[in-house]
Design brief:
Layout: H1 6-10, H2 17-27, H3 33-46, H4 50-54, E1 61-62, E2 67-70, E3 87-90, H5 99-109, H6 127-141, E4 146-147, E5 150-151, H7 159-173, H8 179-186, H9 191-198
Antiparallel strand pairs: 1-2, 2-3, 4-5
């Protein structure tokens, strides 16, 4: 597998933890504070893709065990074909992300049937709807993402920016993680994929 081109690496945008916190705070200046906070928090904790998060059901979340369990069928399928194995994410229970507490607040406020994030117009939010929430909060918080060649603007922030931000957080803001831990969290098919995308996040 070829290396990720330098230009593509330079365009990998990420946010630092304080910027994500600013987006979470900005959620409560709107009508759907608990929901929007939960969306950003889950994306930033798990590294889920926007389409995957849109497909998550309420009963896939076990707050007593601080777990999110998702079947292979809703995960992105590898280019080689086949269905990924089910995966269980350990959710942040008492750390800085406060994922479990955030979800409890959301569950107390929301009337949920099947979808974790229902829509007023349909049974569940779409991946685009998830992305729109992220972009709206980035704009409110006026966060400017980082990349290897400098900085971007709030308009450059997407749900996938939060996925890249998980890699940066694990390698730079947390202790004890390796590129293998990032690979497992983001569910890349090989660790080589993780290295090609994020080796420039590590200090040399």
């Amino acid at each position: 597998m070829p290396d990720t081109p330098p230009k593509e690496k330079a365009n990998i945008r990420y946010l630092k933890p304080a910027q994500v916190e600013a987006m979470r705070d900005a959620a409560y200046t709107g009508r759907h504070g608990d929901r929007d906070d939960a969306i950003v928090t889950l994306l930033y904790d798990t590294g889920l893709r926007r389409g995957e998060l849109a497909s998550v059901n309420r009963d896939m979340v076990d707050l007593d065990e601080a777990e999110l369990r998702i079947p292979g069928g809703i995960q992105k399928h590898p280019p080689t074909g086949g269905t990924p194995d089910p995966v269980t994410f350990a959710l942040d229970r008492s750390g800085e992300l406060r994922t479990v507490r955030t979800l409890r607040a959301y569950f107390n406020d929301a009337d949920l049937d099947d979808a974790l994030f229902p829509s007023r117009k349909s049974d569940r939010m779409t991946g685009k709807g998830i992305n729109d929430v992220v972009k709206r909060l980035a704009d409110r918080a006026e966060v400017r993402p980082y990349h290897a060649a400098g900085r971007g603007g709030p308009d450059d922030v997407t749900a996938h920016t939060l996925r890249h931000s998980v890699a940066w957080r694990m390698l730079r803001a947390e202790e004890g993680n390796t590129i293998y831990d990032v690979r497992n969290r983001l569910r890349h098919s090989t660790v080589a994929t993780t290295e090609q995308r994020y080796d420039h996040f590590q200090k040399v």
